[in-house]
Amino acid sequence: MVRNFLSGASYPFHALVMLQRYPALWKYIAFPILLNILVGATIYAGLLLAGFRGIDALIATLPEWASIVGWLLRALLLVTLLIATGYLLVRFGVVLGAPFYGRLSERLEELRDGVAFDAPPPTVSNVAHDVGRALLFEIKKLLLALTIGLPVLLLNLIPFAGSVLATAGGIALGATISCLDFLDPPLERRRLRFRTKLGAIRRGLPATAGFGLICLGLVSIPLINLFAVPLCITAGTLFYCDHKHEFPGNPAMVRKSSSLAQDPPS
Q1: Which of 172, 197, 240, 242 could form a disulfide with 186 if both were Cys (CB 3.0 to 4.6 A apart)?
Q2: How far apart are CA 37 and CA 80, in angstroms?
Q3: CA separation, residue 121 to residues 3, 28, 125, 192 (Å)
Q4: What is the mean pLDDT of the chain?
Q5: Cis, peptide link before residue 120, omega less than 30° from 0
Q6: Alpha helix ranges (H) inside 120-160
């Protein structure tokens, strides 16, 4: 069990090797990263300026000796907004970069296993269906977080052990959401149901636990998480390729192509 757990946790490192071996894959990563940096910087700067103005207005009503309070509030605001903006980028960065990340995942699976995908044509109805599935997926993740997260918070009411249990539960929930996020591209290509995805994550334990925890840690680090999202999506696709026997699929959407498996680095 320990070896399987550590094996799951090692996939971001495998992803780094894969991206180094195939530099052409970076074209699916560079634009989403730049877009996230632009969006994040805009949000951060706007909120920071508004916060500084609010702090200045508050300090203006206090005695002169209280100016140190203003500096403490500014420092707190800097750190708080950095963490909050990083969290927002993780949640929405996957959505903003979805078209690029989806193609990245496809290309990785082609290179790794020599398969191609008979995707449906991009008609209006098909695009609307895909958008609907994506929105429903996010809603179900939110419901999962609320359904489990609220009872976990209530564990804090238990003396002594409650805080430990609540922390462990929160980490487990975060790791599960990370698995759903970063394993989703290959699973969604096979049009799996939400419960089927959750069941596959459960069957993949303890490897999925190691994978989810390392990804949760990477995307929780401010600034680093801008690069961690595509890295974890790469890692998730590689994880799927090595554990596909644990995941049901739709064979009609996949066809073998031996030439793709031999595609040289470029």
Answers
A1: 240
A2: 18
A3: 42, 21, 10, 19
A4: 79
A5: no
A6: 124-154
CA distances from 107 to 102, 103, 197, 233 (A): 9, 6, 21, 12
Query: DSSP assignment, residue 254?
Result: E
Residue located via tokens 């750190």: 79
Token pair in block for residue 18: 């894969």
**Alpha-carbon gap, residue 36 to 44, rounded angstroms:** 12
Q: What is the per-residue pLDDT for 12?
A: 92
3 state SS of 262:
coil
Give me the residues paired with residue 116 across strands: 255
At 250 the pLDDT is: 52
Provide the sign of the torsion angle of the four alpha carbons 194, 198, 203, 206, taken in this order. Answer: positive
Cβ-proximal residues to 63 (8 Å cutoff; 6+ apart), any chain: none
Residue 210 predicted with pLDDT over 90: yes
Q: How far is the C-alpha of 150 from the C-alpha of 131, rounded, in Å?
A: 28
Q: Which two tokens stand for residue 246?
A: 């644990």
pLDDT tens across 213-239, in order?
999 888 887 777 778 888 898 999 999
Q: Write the CB contacts of 191 (distance below 8 Å, at least 6 apart in sequence).
A: 133, 250, 253
Average pLDDT, integer, range 82-107:
75
Where residue 93 falls among pLDDT bands split at 50, 70, 90?
A: low
CA distance 49 to 47: 6
The DSSP code sequence of 185-246 is HHHHHTT--HHHHHHHHHHTTTHHHHHHHHHHHHHTSTTHHHHHHHHHHHHHHHHHHHSGGG
